[in-house]
Design goal:
194 residues, 13 strands, 25% strand, two-stranded antiparallel ribbon, mainly beta
Length: 194
Protein backbone atom coordinates (compact mmCIF):
# COMPACT_ATOMS: atom_id res chain seq x y z
CA UNK A 1 0.00 0.00 0.00
CA UNK A 2 1.32 3.45 -0.93
CA UNK A 3 -0.27 6.65 0.26
CA UNK A 4 0.08 10.27 -0.76
CA UNK A 5 -1.71 13.16 0.89
CA UNK A 6 -1.56 16.44 -0.93
CA UNK A 7 -1.85 19.98 0.36
CA UNK A 8 -2.49 22.83 -2.06
CA UNK A 9 -0.73 26.18 -1.84
CA UNK A 10 -2.18 28.85 -4.12
CA UNK A 11 -0.46 32.14 -4.82
CA UNK A 12 -2.24 34.85 -6.79
CA UNK A 13 -0.20 37.77 -8.07
CA UNK A 14 -2.74 40.50 -8.82
CA UNK A 15 -0.36 42.62 -10.87
CA UNK A 16 0.19 39.85 -13.43
CA UNK A 17 -3.02 37.91 -12.74
CA UNK A 18 -0.95 34.74 -12.44
CA UNK A 19 -2.21 31.68 -10.59
CA UNK A 20 0.29 29.19 -9.23
CA UNK A 21 -0.84 25.94 -7.66
CA UNK A 22 1.48 23.36 -6.09
CA UNK A 23 0.92 20.02 -4.43
CA UNK A 24 3.05 18.61 -1.64
CA UNK A 25 3.17 14.99 -0.60
CA UNK A 26 2.50 15.57 3.10
CA UNK A 27 3.05 11.93 4.06
CA UNK A 28 6.53 11.59 2.53
CA UNK A 29 8.85 9.97 5.10
CA UNK A 30 6.48 10.74 8.01
CA UNK A 31 5.96 8.37 10.95
CA UNK A 32 3.77 5.47 9.78
CA UNK A 33 2.46 2.56 11.87
CA UNK A 34 0.17 -0.43 11.34
CA UNK A 35 -1.59 -2.94 13.58
CA UNK A 36 0.11 -6.07 12.21
CA UNK A 37 3.16 -6.45 10.02
CA UNK A 38 3.90 -9.39 7.79
CA UNK A 39 7.24 -10.91 8.78
CA UNK A 40 9.66 -10.52 5.94
CA UNK A 41 12.00 -8.09 4.24
CA UNK A 42 10.68 -4.66 3.30
CA UNK A 43 7.33 -5.07 5.07
CA UNK A 44 7.26 -2.10 7.46
CA UNK A 45 4.58 0.59 7.56
CA UNK A 46 7.17 3.24 6.66
CA UNK A 47 7.43 1.71 3.16
CA UNK A 48 4.03 3.18 2.35
CA UNK A 49 5.37 6.74 2.67
CA UNK A 50 8.94 6.35 1.36
CA UNK A 51 8.11 7.57 -2.17
CA UNK A 52 9.37 4.31 -3.69
CA UNK A 53 6.70 2.37 -5.61
CA UNK A 54 8.88 -0.75 -5.56
CA UNK A 55 8.49 -1.15 -1.77
CA UNK A 56 5.30 -2.18 -0.06
CA UNK A 57 3.82 -2.25 3.43
CA UNK A 58 2.53 -5.79 3.68
CA UNK A 59 -0.20 -7.09 6.00
CA UNK A 60 -1.36 -10.59 6.82
CA UNK A 61 -4.50 -11.69 4.98
CA UNK A 62 -7.61 -9.98 6.36
CA UNK A 63 -11.31 -10.72 6.11
CA UNK A 64 -14.06 -12.93 7.51
CA UNK A 65 -12.15 -16.20 7.07
CA UNK A 66 -8.79 -15.00 8.40
CA UNK A 67 -7.71 -14.62 12.03
CA UNK A 68 -7.53 -10.84 11.45
CA UNK A 69 -10.93 -9.43 10.41
CA UNK A 70 -9.63 -5.86 10.46
CA UNK A 71 -6.27 -4.15 10.50
CA UNK A 72 -5.27 -0.50 10.53
CA UNK A 73 -2.54 1.65 9.10
CA UNK A 74 -1.89 5.31 9.89
CA UNK A 75 0.56 8.12 9.23
CA UNK A 76 1.25 11.10 11.50
CA UNK A 77 1.54 14.19 9.30
CA UNK A 78 2.95 16.19 12.21
CA UNK A 79 0.50 19.07 11.81
CA UNK A 80 -3.08 19.93 10.82
CA UNK A 81 -3.66 20.44 7.07
CA UNK A 82 -6.48 20.99 4.61
CA UNK A 83 -6.20 17.88 2.44
CA UNK A 84 -6.96 18.20 -1.27
CA UNK A 85 -6.69 14.51 -2.11
CA UNK A 86 -5.47 11.19 -0.78
CA UNK A 87 -3.94 8.61 -3.12
CA UNK A 88 -3.61 5.01 -1.97
CA UNK A 89 -2.01 2.38 -4.21
CA UNK A 90 -2.68 -1.27 -3.36
CA UNK A 91 -0.92 -4.41 -4.38
CA UNK A 92 -2.27 -7.93 -4.10
CA UNK A 93 -0.89 -10.17 -1.36
CA UNK A 94 1.49 -11.90 -3.72
CA UNK A 95 3.13 -8.52 -4.36
CA UNK A 96 1.80 -7.82 -7.85
CA UNK A 97 -0.89 -5.45 -8.98
CA UNK A 98 -3.65 -6.83 -11.17
CA UNK A 99 -2.81 -7.11 -14.84
CA UNK A 100 -4.38 -4.39 -16.98
CA UNK A 101 -8.08 -4.98 -17.49
CA UNK A 102 -8.65 -6.87 -14.24
CA UNK A 103 -9.66 -5.68 -10.75
CA UNK A 104 -11.01 -6.69 -7.38
CA UNK A 105 -10.20 -9.36 -4.84
CA UNK A 106 -7.54 -11.61 -6.35
CA UNK A 107 -7.98 -9.68 -9.62
CA UNK A 108 -10.84 -11.93 -10.73
CA UNK A 109 -13.17 -9.28 -12.19
CA UNK A 110 -12.72 -7.87 -15.69
CA UNK A 111 -12.88 -4.15 -16.46
CA UNK A 112 -15.60 -3.24 -18.93
CA UNK A 113 -13.31 -1.28 -21.25
CA UNK A 114 -15.28 1.97 -21.38
CA UNK A 115 -12.85 4.22 -19.46
CA UNK A 116 -11.87 7.55 -21.01
CA UNK A 117 -8.93 7.48 -23.46
CA UNK A 118 -8.78 3.65 -23.29
CA UNK A 119 -7.25 3.76 -19.81
CA UNK A 120 -7.76 0.60 -17.78
CA UNK A 121 -10.02 0.69 -14.74
CA UNK A 122 -8.84 1.02 -11.13
CA UNK A 123 -7.37 -2.35 -10.15
CA UNK A 124 -9.07 -2.24 -6.72
CA UNK A 125 -12.55 -0.78 -7.37
CA UNK A 126 -13.09 -1.26 -11.12
CA UNK A 127 -14.03 2.43 -11.41
CA UNK A 128 -12.72 4.59 -14.22
CA UNK A 129 -10.77 7.14 -12.17
CA UNK A 130 -10.35 9.49 -15.14
CA UNK A 131 -14.01 9.29 -16.16
CA UNK A 132 -15.95 7.40 -18.80
CA UNK A 133 -15.34 7.28 -22.53
CA UNK A 134 -17.72 9.03 -24.91
CA UNK A 135 -21.19 7.46 -24.76
CA UNK A 136 -20.80 5.85 -21.30
CA UNK A 137 -21.58 6.80 -17.69
CA UNK A 138 -21.85 5.44 -14.09
CA UNK A 139 -19.06 4.54 -11.65
CA UNK A 140 -17.99 1.47 -13.64
CA UNK A 141 -18.75 3.15 -16.99
CA UNK A 142 -21.13 0.29 -17.72
CA UNK A 143 -24.23 2.33 -18.61
CA UNK A 144 -24.79 3.79 -22.09
CA UNK A 145 -25.85 7.43 -22.26
CA UNK A 146 -29.59 8.01 -22.11
CA UNK A 147 -31.21 9.18 -25.34
CA UNK A 148 -30.72 12.93 -25.61
CA UNK A 149 -27.26 12.95 -23.99
CA UNK A 150 -23.78 12.28 -25.37
CA UNK A 151 -20.03 12.67 -24.84
CA UNK A 152 -17.68 11.90 -21.97
CA UNK A 153 -19.75 10.77 -18.95
CA UNK A 154 -22.88 11.78 -20.96
CA UNK A 155 -22.49 15.39 -19.83
CA UNK A 156 -23.78 17.05 -23.02
CA UNK A 157 -27.37 17.37 -24.26
CA UNK A 158 -28.28 16.73 -27.88
CA UNK A 159 -29.75 19.63 -29.86
CA UNK A 160 -33.22 18.08 -29.93
CA UNK A 161 -33.55 18.80 -33.65
CA UNK A 162 -32.64 15.44 -35.19
CA UNK A 163 -34.97 14.29 -38.00
CA UNK A 164 -38.17 12.58 -36.77
CA UNK A 165 -37.04 12.90 -33.14
CA UNK A 166 -34.32 10.31 -33.75
CA UNK A 167 -31.62 10.24 -31.05
CA UNK A 168 -28.24 11.80 -31.64
CA UNK A 169 -25.18 9.55 -31.47
CA UNK A 170 -24.11 8.95 -27.90
CA UNK A 171 -20.44 9.56 -28.70
CA UNK A 172 -20.52 12.79 -30.76
CA UNK A 173 -24.03 14.27 -30.55
CA UNK A 174 -24.35 14.13 -34.36
CA UNK A 175 -27.72 13.49 -35.99
CA UNK A 176 -26.86 10.63 -38.36
CA UNK A 177 -30.36 10.52 -39.91
CA UNK A 178 -30.41 14.23 -40.69
CA UNK A 179 -32.05 17.33 -39.22
CA UNK A 180 -35.59 18.59 -38.78
CA UNK A 181 -36.59 21.14 -41.42
CA UNK A 182 -35.10 24.51 -40.53
CA UNK A 183 -31.90 23.14 -38.90
CA UNK A 184 -28.43 22.28 -40.20
CA UNK A 185 -24.91 21.16 -39.07
CA UNK A 186 -23.89 17.66 -38.08
CA UNK A 187 -25.63 18.08 -34.71
CA UNK A 188 -28.60 20.05 -36.11
CA UNK A 189 -27.89 22.95 -33.77
CA UNK A 190 -27.85 25.74 -36.36
CA UNK A 191 -31.16 27.24 -37.46
CA UNK A 192 -31.32 28.02 -41.16
CA UNK A 193 -32.15 31.57 -42.15
CA UNK A 194 -35.23 31.90 -44.34
Amino acid sequence: MKIGMYHTDILILLADLTLISTYDNLSYNKLATQSLTYVGPSSGASNAVDGNIATCTRQFAIGLTSPHETVWWKVDLGDVYNIYSISILFKTYDGHECIDGMYGLKCLQQCLGHCRDNVTCNHVTGHCDGGCDKGWTAALCDKKCDDGTYGYDCLHNCSGHCLNDSPCTKQTGHCDRGCEPGYTNTDCSKATVT
